[in-house]
Write a structure and sequence with these properties.
280 residues, alpha/beta, Rossmann fold, 10 helices
Length: 280
């Protein structure tokens, strides 16, 4: 076991919606309570939570921050998966570098947690290959290696952070959230555009003090626009980001853009290129 705190418990339970999606669907209003699992050291217990009507399983699954976990220790992997999922992250676990490389071709990740001494392609080689291909996904090495040479090499090939085993999960969580904020080019918890506020950790949009409920694809687009505030996003980049698991046409993209404009977001068209969300 590589987590320091023997009495570690999960503070926040957002529900594992993707494990029990049909029960979390708002189209079934009778289902107001749903038993969900969450992890606590060496045991799994059931708790009841009151469902928030604005959540659906698909909404949570699609808009969780996606983490690639490269770790060949089964016990540590299972522990981290349980803990990260309880904090509302989607986790893809692989046990060797070649599997990790394959995973990055199939899906885009928001962050990577990488062990170093894994089979076939070690963590250093894997990250070096990604960086050389232009993939700048934030990466944290989680490793038992403690020598300065390994630490230095990790940063030289493109690591964003480094945490040594054994580690406290709360510390890892702080580092993860800090790196995810950097994708929005800010250290603040929210970004303001006119009278809109995008709350980064909650992945939620507000107009004034009112929550703006958005369907999955449109929330994902809002996320991309706020990550790239004042920059032009090409149609190709938007389609590439939104095509995960389902093809989307330029016509469908225009429909979603128009829906976001209807709620008041100042999205402008850059003719022949794409779209831009600009702060006034």
């Amino acid at each position: 076991m590589y987590l320091k705190n023997d009495n570690l418990s999960v503070r926040t339970i957002m529900s594992k919606a993707h494990y029990s999606g049909r029960h979390l669907c708002p189209y079934n209003p009778q289902k107001k309570l749903q038993k969900i699992r969450f992890f606590e050291k060496k045991c799994v217990r059931l708790v009841n939570i009151t469902l928030n009507d604005k959540l659906t399983s698909f909404f949570i699954y699609l808009h969780m921050s996606k983490i690639l976990l490269l770790e060949d220790d089964d016990v540590l992997s299972e522990t981290l998966i349980e803990l990260l999922e309880s904090e509302n992250f989607e986790v893809k676990h692989v046990s060797d570098g070649e599997m990790a490389l394959d995973a990055t071709f199939i899906k885009k990740f928001d962050l990577m947690l990488l062990d170093i001494n894994v089979p076939f392609l070690n963590g250093f080689e894997f990250l070096k290959s990604l960086r050389e291909s232009g993939d700048m996904t934030p990466a944290i090495f989680i490793t038992a290696l403690t020598d300065v040479a390994s630490l230095s090499h990790g940063f030289e090939i493109g690591a964003d952070d480094y945490i040594k085993k054994p580690f406290d999960f709360d510390e890892l969580l702080i580092r993860i959230k800090a790196l995810l904020k950097k994708q929005y080019h800010t250290y603040a918890n929210e970004i303001v555009v006119d009278d809109f506020r995008f709350v980064i950790e909650k992945d939620e949009l507000y107009r004034g003090s009112s929550f703006v409920s958005l369907p999955p694809y449109e929330l994902h687009m809002v996320r991309l626009f706020f990550q790239n505030l004042n920059a032009t996003l090409s149609k190709e980049r938007l389609l590439d980001a939104l095509n995960e698991g389902k093809e989307m046409s330029e016509g469908a993209l225009r429909v979603h853009i128009n829906q976001l404009r209807k709620i008041g977001l100042p999205i402008t068209t850059v003719k022949g290129i794409g779209y831009r969300l600009a702060a006034s």
